[in-house]
Automatic annotation (TrEMBL):
GO terms for molecular function: lyase activity. The keyword Metal-binding does not apply. It comes from uncultured marine thaumarchaeote KM3_28_B05. The chain crosses the membrane at residues 21-42. Keywords: Lyase, Membrane, Transmembrane, Transmembrane helix. This is Streptogramin lyase.
Amino acid sequence: MAGSKEKSAKVKKRGKSVNKKGVFVVVFFGGILLTSTIMFALPPPPPTMSEDDIESDITKTGTPMDNFPDDQRATFCGVEEAKSNSFVTEYKIPTLCTQPLAIKVGPDGNIWFIQTNTGSIAKFDPVSEQFTEFENSFWPEQGRTMSWGMDYSPDGTLWYTDGTYDSIWKFNTITETFDGMSYPVSESGSLPQKLEIDGSNVFVNDFTGGKITIFDLVQNMDDVTYMSVLNPIPEAFTGDLTIDAENNLWYTNWVVDSTGFLVKLNLADYQNEVSIDDTETTLEKYIHVFDFPHDLNTANGLTTDQNGNVWIVDTSSSFFFRFDPTTQEFTKYITTEPPLSSYGNVTGVIKTPVSRPYWIDTDNSGNLVFNEQTSNQIAVLDVQKESLVEYMIPSKNPNWADCDLDSSANCGVAQIFGFDTTDGAIWFTEWAENNIGVIDTTKPLPFKTNTDKETLVLKKGESGEITLTITYADISDSINSEIKTSHTASTTTNFSDLLISSSRNSSQGNTEEIEITVQASETSLTGNYKVLLGIGNNEVTVSQYVDVIIES
């Protein structure tokens, strides 16, 4: 492990090797405590069987499962074999309980991913369907981490983050060797999270440490230099980042359920002044901050589209947001409601299920792709058409939802935390099921949707009609299909500013027209809202957005 040299004086240089935190903590997935009754911040057990092992019911297997007690292995290591459906193919990782997380498609088409319960990196060849796992000889015995970010460098190396040991690792795919360096830790503590390579720089957000760190991309880890951009809100979380086409750095800085900023930094001018002065540099000349809109409480993933808009997903709701840099306005969007199979609700305590969009990216066609953590789905948004396709991942782990553990029903979530896109495909990891998988987005969908209007204007207390036309690839696709609606207006358990109802009619050939009624309540708030109308089955949901304007 190498140290690093600081270019500006914002963060003290650290030259020691791996920093071992006292307790391995993964309960804070992007700021959200998952609704599981299982504690999963347990430190790894000692390497040999002891009286404490026996009392804790830990059966030694000689596999990565030994990092968890027997009664937690189903939760963290998986419960079933890999599955497939019409769009998704899953592959079981040969080593048990590796907890795959960050994933990247290489230029040669091979799939690379981090095994966070072993510290290894793995390669999957989609042609031969063979796995190759590379052991990191520097990794502490029974060490565990959360590696959220990974990116590919043109020199054939993969860079990735290590949240437990405050490190940045580099794996050379040609020589098949590891190298690493300590991450510059803030006084308040650090958690290097996402990672993006742009030009000759490696960008890392320090989720808990209040900064963005920019490393020089070099061959020798001993010669790495870096600069750090400090947060506008001290002691607040630093979310995902991206660099737009005009070389602006965008990221989020926020406090859960309190306040937050979308931050824009003129990267070229800022880096130029820092490199010239080599001293503390004020951000005031280069930075712009934009207050979060209402309902954006937990900003995790962030990306920009081909139009220069910034998109942010909110992990404590079903919302995601578009920011227009020209008008400086936010627009709120919503996913469909999670299917019952993803949350179970066997106790009946879940009154308003949410999908929790987690990370977001763009594909080669300009579409947005994001994972819905508690819907067990991956979504694709056509930005131009404002249409949404949500693909259901077939594997589910019941221990992460309110499922009946004694039932054979396919219930729960697989914790789909990592994904990457390539032409016609989305590759992803299942952290709780020890799988990787791929969605074939080139396959024809069973439904096509269209609405007779793009905008509906209502006054308070009024209702209006929208016709949703469904075209089936085959009329049999209408069997077991379900009409799905959601909206971004204010909603509580017992009240909503918008009420949506639907009426299905007999199909005419392969076409069905659905009459949708949208009613604004007498006390609804004026404003512009997104209504999502669609149809789905147990494999895929296809939907269309309509603008609804409520006037006074």
